[in-house]
Design a protein that fits this description.
The structure holds 2 protein chains of 2 kinds. Helices cover 31% and strands 18% of the residues of chain A. By secondary structure, chain A is of the alpha+beta class. Among the domains of chain A are: 125 residues, Alpha-Beta Complex (Dipeptide-binding Protein, domain 1), CATH 3.90.76.10; 244 residues, Dipeptide-binding Protein, Domain 3 (Dipeptide-binding Protein, domain 3, Roll), CATH 3.10.105.10. Chain B is 73% helix and 0% strand. Chain B is globular and about 85 Å long. Classes of the chains: A alpha+beta, B mainly alpha. At the A-B interface, helix 1, strand 12, helix 7, helix 13 and helix 18 of A face helix 2, helix 4, helix 6, helix 7 and helix 9 of B.
């Protein structure tokens, strides 16, 4: 008979062995050194929704197509126009047409010559769509051409594209319309291309082309061997999608990713003291606002079963008074952890020359707000409730999206501040698609009722302020307007600034427009959000913000910043004598991978290459199950065998 | 085992699955939120375009009977439709891509937890009141009450970001290409260790607590006293008499838990960015991707029903009384 102690000992050994067997191969696994390729790894918590440039709604989608394709004219370090698909351009003497010179000898990543015909095809799609009063796909790219007044494009030869415009502005140099290869998409018209399924690998003229996309996991871009410009140090760019910002931050700390987009304020603060990590607080091209539902203010219309709950919201004096009750500094400090700027006018400061501070700024002063409400005819009743002019207590329904954790906090502050004025606030959180539908009025369709009082949400714009200005135009009611504001005077100024031929002239008009919206308190812009970013400096150097003053290195405009990155590991840090020798140095152009490489074995990809993996998983499972089975069988046998002899 | 018992269990299982199909349809449509793919705030989209997008997904039709009939009909034919979020890919493919990662992770974790949990429970139950019990049971209770992210995050901070032994997240190095299956396997195992440890730790408590109480009860049985009276050694009584009888409740728990394997472990998968069905569920929920949600819940429902079915059969085999 064996002693129980030895039993236990044997079992302990077996358990340790099992644990060891599980751990050992893992420990033996190479850290991350997969070959010599220098891979730039970028982390973001935003998923990629589509790789069709006309369909994507998200910043990651823009990043994907901007890496792969070129704009006709690109954005420079400070958003100034720089050569892109076209290397030169000139305006005709009358200012109504532009001649673009397309690069000589440029090729697509698959080796096909890239010519003016590609540019004419891509811009032509938008021109046709504009003429048909329609849009391509989600409709975010073509309005740029409409804004620039482009009416016709023609390509007399392979190196020349001429664009005709209705006005003499230079907005044509800031259009966000990619040039896609005609030899691949040429058969599709503007409707078909908007719906087209783009699949990796993509063919482009940008510095890196999309080679692989695993939905919700990562998108991999390989260096375009035919890229015409300066090549960045990275052989590949992998954008990884994280479900949790905490995990993304840990991955940055561990050196698994080189760039983390969008850690929160606390995470950023914690990263500030990490070695080899730099943090950036960029100014976002957008804001978070309280949008007041002013439906019917301009035309007296009402909505059955919908619209604002009180007419007070249509009164600029009422909205103005509310503005004094909001302490934006507190919001920035307490909600954003100090990262962000107090908001005021509808052109964010990141757009530099176009932004103006308001002529009549509102400052936080609850008592003043009360006085202004009293003066405007909104009195308190015996129970301390603020009454509208119909004698009804004012109770405002604030709707906000469920997409971030700062909005609910803001709502709580606003509830408290408005409450001090005797204005009751109820808040309701909705998913963004639902919220988008709630704020739509009947102009968008018979089912919509704009049944809200205040929408707490935000907007993000383009390098040109027009994208943010247009949501206050009369014709935005029924689409993007969430204030239901309509003022023909504003519309007139919008047209005038679009047609302005000089920057000074445009700026003057823009200043008036910004003050008009501010004074009428159509929106209460709470703050200009900050873009928080952290990146590592031990593998890549050459990080540069775009715009340089208050932007971020990546996820900005165009692809220039990827091409500025250098290999930090190739530079011998302490002694300059041992000059840059081998390392995994990516000599521009030379070590480049052949263009759109097929999906590697270790990944499912789109072509159904997942077979390998599945076999392996099954193999692992079978092995484990077999081992468990054998173990079980042994135990059973012993149990069946031994006890009997002993009993 | 009688054929009648089998037939009754099968009929029950099939009926339950049919009810799941129906419930699946209604459940997600009762949920607040909109599956609109077209951004309503887009200034450049017309009312017609919005309507066209709805029509394309059949969302313009009345919920009952049109949408319901179409859904039940195609589900019975094995067609789960197309994902709204993932570029119109077939739901079967979307779910299929995430199936193996989840089964690998949760399945292995269950196995480890079952073996270690039951062993721990049996030992602490047998040594009730002793030091081993106090520590073991205390540990079990702590682990049982900890959500995965509470276990997982410290593991990441210590072993991944701190010591650098394992990668922080993902199932494979994103975008890596491998020279051979060996390299692939090494990468996979390295990524597997922390999430596997997290989920195993989280599951061990449940098994251990159940087994402990079960063993404690068994300890008081007459046949144990008899065995003792016969002079059998302690370990022998535990292994040969107590454990086999105490395992019965564990079978049920194991069966039910195995049914949930395909559901994934949402919080653990999110913390470790594991590309499994748990993260897919969250993605699909956030975008109100009805077809994918229906697919996941159908898969989950069916596997839970099947696991229970198997448990019933096994139980019937183990304990003749339930067959009556």
């Amino acid at each position: 008979m064996r002693a129980p102690v030895s039993h236990r000992f044997v079992r302990l050994l077996a358990a340790l062995g099992l644990a060891g067997a599980l751990l050992l191969p893992a420990l033996a696994a190479p850290a991350r050194a997969a070959g010599e390729k220098l891979v730039l790894r970028v982390g973001t918590t935003q998923d990629l929704d589509s790789i069709n440039p006309y369909q994507t709604l998200l910043v990651t989608g823009y990043e994907a197509f901007e890496l792969t394709y070129n704009l006709l004219v690109d954005f420079g370090p400070d958003l100034e126009p720089i050569p892109g698909f076209a290397d030169k351009w000139e305006r005709a003497a009358d200012g109504k047409s532009w001649k673009f010179h397309i690069r000589t000898g440029m090729k697509w990543s698959d080796g096909t010559p890239a010519t003016a015909q590609d540019a004419c095809y891509s811009w032509g799609l938008a021109v046709v769509a504009i003429k048909a009063d329609a849009h391509i796909g989600a409709g975010y790219l073509d309005p740029g051409l409409k804004d620039a007044g482009v009416t016709k494009v023609e390509c007399p030869d392979d190196q020349t594209m001429i664009a005709y415009t209705t006005d003499a502005s230079d907005r044509i140099l800031q259009t966000y319309l990619t040039i896609i290869p005609r030899h691949i998409w040429g058969a599709k018209d503007y409707k078909a291309i908007g719906e087209a399924k783009f699949e990796a690998p993509l063919v482009g003229t940008g510095p890196y082309t999309l080679a692989e996309w695993k939905t919700s996991q990562y998108a991999r871009f390989v260096r375009n061997p035919n890229y015409w410009g300066k090549q960045g140090a990275a052989d590949e760019v992998v954008i990884q999608f994280f479900k949790s910002a905490d995990t993304m931050v840990q991955a940055l700390k561990a050196g698994e990713i080189d760039y983390a987009r969008g850690p929160n304020a606390d995470q950023l603060k914690a990263l500030q003291n990490q070695p080899n990590v730099k943090t950036v607080v960029g100014s976002a091209n957008g804001w978070t606002q309280l949008a007041f539902n002013g439906y019917g203010a301009s035309n007296g219309k009402t909505i059955k079963g919908g619209g604002p709950s009180t007419k007070a919201l249509l009164d600029p004096a009422f909205r103005d008074a509310l503005g004094y009750a909001v302490d934006k500094k507190v919001l920035v400090d307490r909600v954003l952890g100090g990262f962000g700027d107090v908001g005021n006018t509808i052109v964010p400061p990141v757009l530099g020359q176009w932004h103006v501070e308001p002529d009549h700024p509102r400052t936080f002063d609850i008592e003043l707000a009360k006085q202004k409400l009293d003066a405007a005819g909104y009195k308190l009743d015996g129970e301390g409730r603020r009454l509208d002019k119909e004698g009804k207590p004012i109770s405002l329904r604030v709707f906000l999206p469920d997409t971030n954790d700062s909005d609910p906090k803001v709502a709580q502050f606003v509830k408290d501040w408005y409450g001090q004025l005797g204005v009751k606030v109820t808040t309701q959180v909705r998913d963004s698609a639902t919220l988008g539908n709630i704020v739509l009025p009947p102009e968008a369709g018979k089912d919509y009722t704009a049944n809200y009082d205040i929408e707490l949400w935000g907007w993000a714009g383009n390098p040109d302020p027009n994208a943010l200005l247009q949501i206050f135009k009369c014709d935005a009611i029924g689409s993007s307007s969430d204030s239901q504001y309509c003022n023909p005077e504003f519309d007139k100024m919008y047209e005038a600034q679009t047609a302005a031929t000089t920057a000074a002239e445009r700026k003057t008009i823009l200043a008036t427009m910004q003050n008009l919206i501010y004074d009428q308190a159509v929106y209460d812009i709470l703050y200009y959000d900050a873009n928080l970013v952290a990146y590592r400096t031990d593998r890549f150097g050459g990080w540069q913000n775009q715009p340089t003053a208050n932007g971020t290195p990546l996820f900005s405009y165009g692809s220039i910043n990827y091409t500025l990155l250098t290999d930090a590991t190739a530079v011998p840090s302490p002694t300059p004598t041992v000059s840059s020798t081998p390392a995994p140095s990516p000599v521009p152009g030379s070590s480049a991978t052949p263009a759109p490489t097929p999906v590697p074995s270790g990944s499912g990809g789109t072509g159904g290459g997942g077979g390998d993996n599945t076999a392996l998983y099954v193999g692992i499972l079978v092995a484990v199950l077999a081992a468990a089975g054998v173990g079980l069988a042994l135990v059973m046998r012993r149990r069946k065998g031994t006890p009997r002899e002993e009993e | 085992m009688s054929a009648r018992y089998l037939a009754r269990q099968s009929a029950q299982a099939i009926f339950t699955i049919l009810m799941i199909v129906l419930l699946n349809f209604l459940l997600f449509r009762m949920m607040p939120g909109s599956p609109d793919r077209v951004n309503p705030r887009n200034p450049n989209v017309t009312a017609e375009q919005r309507e066209a997008a709805k029509a394309r997904w059949g969302l313009d039709q009345p919920l009952i009977p049109d949408q319901l009939v179409a859904f039940v009909g195609s589900t019975l034919q094995g067609d789960l439709g197309y994902s709204m979020k993932f570029q119109g890919q077939p739901v079967l493919k979307v779910i299929g891509d995430r199936f193996m990662p989840t089964v690998l992770l949760i399945g292995l974790a269950e196995l480890i937890a079952i073996v270690l949990g039951l062993a721990l429970g049996a030992y602490t139950g047998w040594r009730r009141g002793g030091m081993a019990d106090r520590i073991g049971n205390g540990l079990s209770l702590i682990l049982y009450s900890m959500p995965y992210f509470v276990i997982g995050m410290p593991l990441i901070i210590i072993f991944a970001a701190g010591l650098g032994w394992f990668p922080t997240s993902g199932m494979l190095t994103a975008g890596a290409s491998y020279a051979g299956p060996g390299q692939f396997l090494a990468d996979l195992l390295a990524h597997l260790v922390l999430p596997l440890a997290t989920i195993s730790l989280g599951l061990i408590g449940g098994y251990s607590i159940l087994m402990r109480s079960s063993i404690t009860e068994t300890r008081a049985e007459d046949y144990i006293a008899t065995a003792r009276a016969k002079g059998l050694p302690d370990g022998k009584i535990l292994r040969s008499h107590a454990i086999p009888n105490a395992l019965l409740p564990a079978v049920t728990l194991i069966a039910i838990n195995l049914g949930y394997v395909v559901g994934g472990a949402i919080t653990a998968e999110i913390v470790f960015n594991w590309p499994g069905l748990g993260t897919l569920t969250v993605d699909a929920l956030n975008s109100r991707d009805y077809p994918v949600l229906q697919g996941i819940f159908l898969l989950l429902g069916v596997s839970v029903v099947l696991a229970n079915f198997v448990a019933d059969i096994v139980y019937g085999y183990l304990d003749p009384r339930v067959r009556q």
